[in-house]
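For the sake of transparency, this paper describes our internal protein records without simplification. The tokens are whole numbers drawn from a learned vocabulary of local backbone shapes. One such record is reproduced below, unchanged from the form in which we store it.

. . .
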Amino acid sequence: MARLLPGLGLTAGATAALLAVAPALARTAPSLSPLVLALLVGALVGSVVGVRSRRGPGAVAQRRGAARLLTAARPGTDWAARHLLRAGVVLLGLQLAVGDVVGLGWRGLAVVAVTVATTFAATLALGRRLGVDRDTTLLVATGFSICGAAAISAMTGVVDRTPRRVRGGARIPSPGAGPARPPEGGSGWRSQDTPADAVATALALVALFGTAAVVVLPWLAGLLDLTAAQAGLWIGASVQEVAQVVAAAGTVAGTAALATATVAKLARVALLAPLVAGAGAVRGRRSAPTAPAPGSGRLRRGGPPPVPGFVLGFLAAVALRSLGVLPPGVLDAAAQVTTTLFVAAMFALGLGVDVPRLARTARRPLALGAGSAVVLTGTSLVAVLALT
């Protein structure tokens, strides 16, 4: 516990400061999620200290205190990035009631299901074609098809649970599994983005293209002469963040658009658990090591269970919310705690992001985000026009 205290203290202080500026952020930039801001601040702090500490001996001596602080904080921030993230995903389930989703009707549910499935599969295929790191591709596909930062946070649990391959057959183990070993002979080793870099890239793309959608989609809805219900369904099925959905649907005349968009967004959140569980099962089968079973010559496959525990917790929270036994005050408090946990985890995760390296390698992920956004908005529009 003593090893965790410096990092937990740093994370708690940064979280309090970020939450203090959140109301002003909501007024000035409603489409920018506090989660994205937290990761940006963490990445800025970590990158500035890291870059300065790599300069000459004199510069290292001048900034030694900051570098030592981050080094001492690393165990606590790593713990926060992992465990607070999963706790936030569990509590996210309390914002979703099955009855609200069913109220969208079969046509609306079909629009959401087709959009999510098409966007997720197309983004994975496009990422392979562009040569984007598979972790980044998976997180971008999840964030664009489901619910932005929260979905990326949930899928991070899958990324952390599986080793990361590099060229030459070597594996980078998940956090806490010990140091990685280069391939034998020293050949084939190449630099690989860390999970924190992949999360930062995915969140940046969600913020960028989601903000653009807040402006473009309401304008296109008016240009296409969509009804308020159609516009709301289209926005709810195709905009990444919840805050971005509210901001975009709020500019459409009438309350029907906002109500429909919110429910459509909840329907996408409902698909988070099966998507994360499915991705975890697939990646677990592909990356789990094989070892001889005791007392036999046959191989058995190891690795973590296919369904992460926090996904089961998310489903339990959804079931509890759907029963209608929790008073509104408890649900409001749970929503605030959820945001706090996500902000803390994103700041802690951001400390491990290498911003200069991301800036040098951003071209392909940017193309991936653009392609995913086109598929997302195009598929949902076609589905809305065909089914409603």
